[in-house]
Amino acid sequence: QVQLVESGGGLVQAGGALRLSCAASGINFCGYTSAWFRQAPGQRRDFVAAMRRSGQTDYYKDSVKGRFTISRDNAKNTVYLQMNSLQPEDTAVYYCAANPWVILSAIEQEDQYRLWGQGTQVTVSS
After folding, report:
1. Nearest-5° Cα angle at 50, 29 to 125
2. Is the separation of the CB atoms in 6 and 66 below 8 Å?
């Protein structure tokens, strides 16, 4: 059974840090472009970061560049999102997503990803 399971969310004060994990079963992340999206209350789900299958190229939403880092541990078949200098506007449910083929020009579009996790809540207090 193919499954993505996120963990690591929680409540943190502004300026703090969290690391989200996305563990995969039934697939090998090395063969997939992986991404993180987030959805704040009342808003649409929005792209945060992505990593190509090679693991050597990553992409970020402008507002998180320099603060968030996507990475992958091939041995653990897990993708991470390290989030530093968190701000209240980062509060959202964060979702992990993956797909074997993603059009590069559309890497930020959620319809490019077939596999999704259940989400993990991140709340940043001011």
Report:
1. 115
2. no
> Tokens in use for 79?
């993708």
Residue from 11, 36, 10, 32 nearest 22 by CA = 36
User: What CA–CA distance (Å, rounded) separates 6 from 107?
Assistant: 20
pLDDT tens digits for range 84-100:
999 999 999 999 999 99
Distance CA 115, CA 120 (A): 15
Phi, psi torsion values for 121, nearest 5 degrees: -80, 130
How long a stretch of residues is the chain? 126
Q: How many helices (H) and strands (E) does the chain have?
A: 0, 11
- Measured on CA atoms in the order 19, 21, 63, 12, is the torsion positive or negative? negative
